[in-house]
Batch of 3 targets.
Target 1
Amino acid sequence: MPPEGVAGCEDSYLLTVAPRFHLRRSFVGRIDRNSGVEESGDPLRPRDDWRSVSAQELSALLKEVPGVGTALPATHLGLLEIPERIRRAWWKEAERSHENESFQGVFSSLIEFLRFKKLPFPDIVHLEVAVNAPGLASTRAGSSGACQGLAYRDRPAVGKGRARQTLGLVNLGDEASFVILLPLPPSTLAARLEAAGESRASALSPDTLVNRYFGFFPREGLLRLRLEPGEGLWLSPRGVVHDGWTRGKRDLDVVLSLRTEVGGEESEKPVEEGAVHQIEMGK
């Protein structure tokens, strides 16, 4: 639902199990909602007032994708799960070496598996593993390591290539991981801003659009999705505002991001605690 008093586009993403995947756990008990973002500070971060969604709210968030032969629609965010052998293989290499070359075989196996499951991939995909400590309200970092907060895409360091958009996320850790989501595409944010009196909102850059939207509607509720070890989420090519969350965790948060390059250069922001390992894969 749009913020109170704002009419306009009602397009929003729905959650589903990605076609050709069979998960051991349902969506029940894995989704929380809060009351928006903290009203001060940059980057944007969620308010820490999470509550479990009701059965009625959960029903409105979910959609079954009919048929195993159906592609995951751009209007849906798809829950998935990788084989345990791949997750264990990554940890074996991580304990043995930190060189990019040692991960090539593991990541090749992962890409082969996800392509077999018919998930859409560009010709070149960047795989980045971020390791973050417990207790953080934001973990989302771009290719430069700079803290991004809630955003549609990742800004590079100044003069170092294009921005990157996340295609999917996979929890490689041994403990549950959390993804923060605003399940609204850019077109919906722009339509709601224009309905609220912000002219030319559709012409704003993705980063400006998100910041301007939360400036108008700081109490727009966010979702927190729990991913068990080996589980992941495939995002929409339209772009999804998301971040990570490690408050309440005891172990390191280890998340793989699959990204593609988009748009132009953006400015760099300060670096926050965390480590990133990245590698580029092609067809």
Note: Confidence is low (pLDDT under 50) at residues 4-9, 265-276.
Target 2
Amino acid sequence: MRAVIQRVNSGSVAVDEKIVGSIGKGFVVLLGVNGKDTEADLLYMVDKIVNIRIFEDDNEKMNLSLMDVGGELLVVSQFTLYGDCRKGRRPSFINAAGPEKAEELYNELVKKCRELGVKTETGTFQAHMNVNIENDGPVTIIVDSEKLI
């Protein structure tokens, strides 16, 4: 799995000009699922998302997690994170999971974040979405479950 985590003051996602998910302070997570991803990748990603310490403490050091600050999540599925642009001019998406597997793991990640008590909103899987993000910092971190070392 691959995630682009953006620290935000607020975020929202709209489908057909209707807001389907919105949050206040927290993370907008753009999530890509690889065809080889397993339950282990899912658990790794959930742990990283809720526990990564990129909120500032009283000393202005990035030392607090989403859980520490009571932050919210907006998780948006984005298969294009697995676009491979090394050859030619058009990306190849061969490494992205098919829709059935991707949706299953995406929904499971959302479920597990909610089970941890994190307010978690979503986009609409496979829909054309307009995502509005008010970055805080900006702080943007890329997490990839394949890059464990």
Note: Residues 2-144 form a domain with the D-tyrosyl-trna(Tyr) Deacylase; Chain: A; fold (CATH 3.50.80.10).
Target 3
Amino acid sequence: MNSIKLLLNNCLIAVGFLTRIPIASWVNFDQINLRRSTYYFAFIAWLITLLLVLIYSLFSYIFPPTICIILLIACNVLVTGALHEDGLADFCDAIGVMGSHEQKIKAMKDSRLGSFAVIALIIAITAKFIFLYEQSSVILALLVCISLSRLFAFTFLISRQYIKTQTSKSEQFTAVNPVLFSMILCVCLVPYYFLLDWQQILSLIVLLCVLRIGLLALFKKHIGGVNGDCMGAAQQVSELFILLVLI
């Protein structure tokens, strides 16, 4: 496989993991390519962002803001396959279990939703609708919250507290060079310099640093570390806080 096809192959793997967008049948999903595809995650976060912003922009020519936001939330679920919403629900199920880390992780792997998961999803979706409706510029809010919340969640891939298990879908993506991965994340932060003023940037830096410390402590308390579902929960929680800062 030549270098250009290999680059495209690994980029498509990242697309296939983070979205429900159909990818070519020739893509090679071997272990080496799976690991290398992690380096494209940050760029796919921006791809998802631009796609959803385009969808919202098209809806805005037809429908009033409330309907546009509802349709956008639905399209987000369709595009991503509710990947992060599922993580939030699973982790909240673990919070609702009174027991050991192993029992909580077992609850997270159960396909059935408990009351904590249902309540968390209702609150998250309702809050997302309200926070977007209250924005002075929904387009700007979407450009920031969709991408930045995913970049924030990806930082947990290089956490030393990541729980490595054979059944984890995301564990295979953790074998990356943390320095290179961090550099890529930093490159993908550059657009915010042009989108936000310095007060907003400073507020978001402080918020996300404190939030990451708090979430790591919460994850460690309940399941002993971080897994893929925790990253989904981190994306959903950070997205709401980012929207709150931007109001």
Note: The chain has a mean pLDDT of 91.
